[in-house]
Design brief:
The protein is an alpha/beta fold. It has a domain at 5-82 and 115-139. The chain contains six helices and six strands; from the N terminus they run βααβααβααβββ. Helix 3 (44-56) runs antiparallel to helix 4 (64-77).
């Protein structure tokens, strides 16, 4: 199956955040569903942010070795999109046209340029559509991944 869902950093991070058990459970379910369907993707930006957050900002941080192992796992098993000059240029358009902060615009740009119709993130308005890309918050009680696969 082709990747149809781009996952933001917060979904990966919450899967390791034991201080937020409800979000952790939802993140684990979401990641598992995307892994089984082979429909999930991340960007190199997301993996870099995940690594940094996992070793520094979690209440119980991962060791560098554990976080590196998780990054390696995603690199091997998920579709990973590089941040390229085209992505940077498109992200600038996202900042200008949609008033996104740059890092959110970069995530949007990856999805848009790779025809990924759905981004899972808690950082956008749930249900918002920008330039053909829909944003859903997987931590909302009404969210059901199966409806989007």
């Amino acid at each position: 199956m082709t990747a149809r869902t781009l996952v933001d950093t917060n979904v990966l991070v919450y899967s390791y955040d034991r201080s937020e058990p409800a979000k952790q459970q939802r993140a684990l379910e979401t990641i598992e569903g995307l892994s089984v369907s082979a429909g999930g993707a991340v960007s190199t930006q997301v993996l870099a942010e995940f690594f940094t957050t996992a070793i520094r900002k979690l209440p119980a941080p991962l060791s560098i070795e554990d976080a590196a192992g998780r990054v390696s796992h995603y690199l091997r098993t998920w579709t990973v999109f590089d941040v390229t000059s085209r992505v940077v240029e498109e992200a600038v358009h996202g900042v200008r046209d949609y008033r996104l902060n740059y890092w959110d615009a970069q995530l949007w740009a990856v999805a848009r340029l790779h025809d990924i119709p759905l981004v899972l993130s808690e950082d956008f308005s749930d249900g918002q559509v920008l330039g053909g890309v829909r944003f859903l918050n997987p931590f909302q009680s009404a969210f059901r991944l199966a409806g989007w696969l």
